[in-house]
Design brief:
Layout lengths: L5 H13 L4 E3 L7 H4 L4 E7 L5 E8 L3 E8 L7 E8 L3 H11 L8 H7 L3 E2 L12 E4 L5 E8 L6 E9 L11 E4 L5 H9 L2
Antiparallel strand pairs: 1-2, 2-3, 3-4, 4-5, 5-10, 6-7, 7-8, 8-9, 9-10
Helix pairs in contact: 1-3, 3-5, 4-5
């Protein structure tokens, strides 16, 4: 297996998003003492058109971590939702970033995954807690799982974990994504279904 070139992929992602109006945020680290500690690390911050979504990438020679956050214009430091992706390729990250900027309400992830042909396989448990919802793509190379979180009004879907066994990674790393409970369904579906 040939190692992935994460530096080249980060440039591809940057080019793809800037062509669609995303803005690169300058970190101001060039020439600083701190920059010396960043040898071999690709660090990129980008804002969507309208400044409603932040993408941050921390990519190294053998691992790529990308986070997409929905920003609240009233309290920017506190994200409305998050999606973190480890070792996913540019096509999937670009699709998730674009899904994050779609106007209007997104359908829920269960609906979108079922429309894409994913099926639910549920195992019965002997406990009183609700088991996670696990969906599989038609080839069973990808899974998306959501936990239930208890609340005052009953159980609600919690965070999602997406495992992409169909993605080639470097070394022993895995291609996965995990989200907050409030991440838009379109973002979750893009992370799970994009080829």
């Amino acid at each position: 297996m040939m190692p992935r070139d994460y530096a080249a992929e980060l440039e591809d992602l940057t080019d793809h998003l800037t062509a669609r109006g995303w803005e690169v945020i300058e970190t101001g680290l060039d020439g600083s003492d701190f920059a010396l500690h960043l040898t071999g690390i690709g660090l990129r911050l980008m804002l969507s058109p309208g400044r409603r979504v932040l993408l941050s990438a921390n990519w190294r020679a053998e691992h790529a971590c990308t986070e997409i956050q929905g920003l609240d214009p009233h309290t920017p430091p506190i994200p409305l939702w998050r999606a973190q992706a480890d070792n996913l390729p540019v096509s999937i990250l670009a699709a998730a970033a674009e899904a994050a900027t779609e106007p209007g309400e997104s359908p829920g992830p269960l609906k979108l995954l079922r429309e894409a042909g994913w099926t639910r396989r549920q195992r019965a448990t002997g406990t009183r807690t609700l088991p996670p919802v696990i969906l599989y793509d038609p080839r069973a190379a990808r899974t998306a799982a959501a936990t239930y979180l208890p609340g005052p009004e009953g159980a609600a879907h919690g965070p999602w974990l997406i495992v992409r066994a169909d993605v080639t990674t470097t070394g022993r790393t895995r291609a996965i994504a995990h989200t907050s409970p409030t991440t838009p369904g379109a973002v979750i579906a893009a992370l799970a279904t994009t080829p």
